[in-house]
Amino acid sequence: MAFDGITIAAMVQELNKNLGGGRFNKIAQPETDELMITGKGAGGQRRLLLSASASLPLIYFTEKNKPSPMTAPNFCMLLRKHIGSARIFAIRQKGMERVVEFELEHLNEMGDPCRKFLIMELMGKHSNIIFCDDKYMILDSIKHVSSHMSSVREVLPGREYFIPHTQDKLDPLTITEEQFMETVFTRPCNLSKAIYTSLTGLSPVIAEEICYRASIDGGDSPQALDETARTHLYHTFLRLMEQVKEGDFTPNIIYRGDEPVEYGVLLFQQFGSEYRCETFDSVSSMLEAYYATKNTITRIRQKSSDLRRIVQTALERNRKKLSLQQKQMKDTAKKEKYKVYGELINTYGYGLEEGCKSFQALNYYTNEEITIPLDPALTPAENSKKYFEKYGKLKRTEEALTEQIADTQSEIEHLESISNALDIALAESDLAQIKEELTEYGYIKKHYSGKKGAKAQMKSKPFHYISSDGYDIYVGKNNFQNDELTFKFATGNDWWFHAKKMAGSHVVVKNNKDEEMPDRVFEEAGRLAAYYSKGRTAPKVEIDYIQKKHVKKPAGAKPGFVVYYTNYSLMAEPDIAGLSEV
Q1: pTM of the model
Q2: Strand, coil or helix: what is 13?
């Protein structure tokens, strides 16, 4: 999600709460486009990060520090000279612009109080941090923008500071109903886009939220709405803006499984039951959680892309092979017909005339009369032999294909289990075990190294959850872990869970208590087995569960593959919200 005007309004509220009336203590510039300011206010001493990165502009409080260069850049030195210990007179946002303005009071060389402005613009690739005097003349900026770079506005020392209004957007906090009607409903685009292109500081997701709350499809044309629908939409928008004016914010992140898909400071209603919402105490903690998780998932996906490609290629190849094998198997169904033809020619063919092309005979298996084609160049005995040879060939093909199909299906199941392991991998150590398995089974060529300890690496461990009743639940992240968890770690009376007839993790509940396990533990373990399976996007997944002593591993079976002959079943939602991971 973009760092939109509503999120900035919530951030300004948080800045005022923690730094309002306080002072700047320390200013550092760890990156060319980033400031780290330590300030002290009513909330105690806090560290504030201002990033004007073109790809990810942000402003938030953080506990983490960043090393600064040995020699401070000129912009940092200028700020230290003028506002290194300045009093924070005000922190504001102008309208709903993506701009945070710090009004600062400090003493000049003569000891007289004077004002300066530190302005943070969070505008994507145009983001900047600008330092101005009391008349809004630019003293310097973290990025210099000349007339060659922008025809709209120069950001250089000595130029007057202003916010460029290039899109003629209206302020959503002050817009009237008449202006709303005239602006939004005359746009030549869909309704959602008409809202966020007409009003300052609204992101596409907020525009969709307004449409959803008004029970109107954001993809509809604005001109298609009648007067009642337009009025209803305006009042829905107005209620949302009242929340912003009152500062009624709830920082939250929307997750699909473990992956964060959206964040905001107003609670979303547009996301369905397959998503979960997690709320935070502050905008800063929300942003840190969102980008930390997002970065982890993105990094692991990038690192696993080669492994995913190998698995996907092998899966496609085996699925094509299986399709051809099943087609060939279909053709072998004719074998019984050829056997019957051969037998009937032997039984009734003694009276056939030479050069006969076919004859009719009673099939004593079905008591029906059938027509049997003959080769006129062959004798009845030779025709019979020909049919028996066809039967024998198809029978041998069927036997070979039965074995080949079983092998191919086993290969597909194995690859799907590896694909599932890649989906749930969260660390490089998880990927290392998957790569080891792919190498062991010939999907990746082995690269021998003469270096001792080349294989030494941090070992991946299974997920560990604690049930609501205090039971330990373990979830294998890949096939090697599944085997170790089930056959080395679990004991006979522990309970074992797995998604029925689909790739998924082995889930083990340690049953080391004297009392009988509560039903809630079975339900929670079932939810984990559903979530860490290929069925995690389904509404419900059927789960098999059984005591570990009844789970067996066939000799020579691939890792993660087990058999069991009696089991219980339950239906579980692939939702692990509320389960605590250790």
Answers
A1: 0.62
A2: helix
